[in-house]
Design brief:
CATH architecture of the largest domain: 6 Propeller
Strand content: 25-35%
Order of helices and strands: EEEEEEEEEEEEEEEEEHEHHHEEH
Number of helices: 5
CATH topology of the largest domain: Neuraminidase
Helix content: 10-25%
Oligomer: single chain
Radius of gyration: 24 Å
């Protein structure tokens, strides 16, 4: 054993170019931050090299003797969720000279060094594409100059753990999902065939299926129809049934189902319709916003049961891995009362829509809740 993490976690070991030093991320317990550590190749002289209220991990030794790594020192949060973002940084081997190489406000992962000395890493970017396949391979010089896309603009997968294959132009990587972990099928990519060409990707482990949609059965329903909503629940339940999961829940992006106007009540609606400036009301308590979201999810559940029939709904879920209901991801903006008058307040929450008793599943949803509210992935 080279390093005893005891009750903590040691992760992402990386060997320096002279093979004398092992770099890794380590935190002694769940309540601590990950920091970068280094030790001799024989396990001796282990010491912490970064500190502060930041997560530092994914060390990548550089040919110039420095170290690239991922860090939350960017002091930003995900555009789509609560955890802190972490992006590409570098420092000297003695821990000095910490500086950002990336100025993204989304997260990045798994840096490695290409044969020409550039860094290859997976980064998130949602420009002109959906979130599901926005984790792509990019390259950058060790001084932060000339970032460029290597592969994956709006293709069918996300690409982690990229490594150059010696003697070829190919890159070996792991096909991963947005919001999931860094595990999945192993694939070869030949960028010569085009940076957005799905034929450039060859799975080396076709017996392993890639995961999509954040490892949930996620659906976005555009129609107000209860029957259409039910059809999407059925498709999600079928996805869960053929997955490796023991139990699952269909998640629905509820943005097209919410009555957003309710969250910005107009007090002078008649005058407004005749051309007057709107006079907005506001919610005096944030908890009332949560009640309104819950009310709308409950109305949708009741609509589904009325249009399809509750017995038919329950029969669809019978003996399935999918739990009898759905997890609604609700996002909107509401007017909240303050001493200065109504101000915009962001509402982002998950609400359960249930078709039967769910108390027996409470331990499962406790685990889901803890996973969704982790401070960092």
């Amino acid at each position: 054993m080279l390093f005893d993490a005891t009750n903590g976690v040691a992760r992402d070991p990386a060997l320096s170019f002279d093979a004398r030093t092992i770099w890794f991320g380590y935190r002694p317990s769940k309540k601590d931050y990950f920091h970068l550590w280094r030790m001799n190749a024989d396990g001796g002289d282990a010491r912490q090299m970064t500190d502060g209220p930041f997560y530092d991990y994914f060390p990548c030794p550089l040919p110039d003797g420095g170290l690239a790594f991922m860090s939350t020192r960017c002091k930003a949060r995900f555009l789509c969720w609560r955890p802190q973002a972490f992006v590409l940084f570098r420092m000297e081997a003695d821990g000095t000279g910490v500086q950002p190489l990336s100025f993204a406000n989304l997260s990045e992962w798994t840096p490695t060094v290409l044969r020409d000395g550039q860094l290859l890493w997976m980064r998130s970017e949602y420009l002109d594409k959906g979130a599901n396949f926005g984790h792509t391979l990019w390259a950058i010089r060790p001084d932060g100059a000339q970032p460029e896309l290597v592969f994956g603009n709006n293709t069918d997968n996300c690409y982690a753990n990229g490594r150059e294959v010696p003697g070829t132009s190919e890159i070996i990587c792991t096909l991963v999902s947005h919001g999931g972990d860094l595990n999945g099928p192993i694939a070869l990519i030949d960028p010569r065939l085009g940076r957005s060409n799905t034929k450039a990707v060859t799975s080396l482990t076709p017996d392993v299926s890639p995961q999509y949609d954040m490892n949930f059965a996620c659906k976005t329903v555009y129609s107000p129809s209860g029957k259409t909503f039910f059809d999407n629940l059925k498709k999600g339940a079928e996805q869960i049934e053929v997955s490796e999961a023991e139990v699952g829940c269909v998640m629905v992006n509820f943005r097209n189902q919410l009555s957003h106007d309710v969250f910005w009540p107009i007090l002078n609606e008649a005058e407004f319709r005749n051309g007057a400036e709107p006079l907005f009301g506001a919610y005096p308590d944030s908890s009332l916003l949560g009640y309104e979201v819950q009310r709308q999810v409950t109305l949708k559940r009741d609509q589904i049961a009325a249009e399809v029939g509750l017995e038919n709904v329950l029969n669809m879920f019978k003996d399935k891995k999918a739990l009898p209901g759905f997890l609604a991801f609700c996002q909107t903006t509401a007017a909240k009362a303050t001493v200065l008058g109504p101000v915009p307040a962001s509402v982002s929450t998950l609400v359960l829509g249930t078709f039967s008793r769910w108390d027996i599943y409470s331990p499962i949803f406790q685990q889901i809740n803890e996973a969704l509210h982790e401070r960092v992935h």
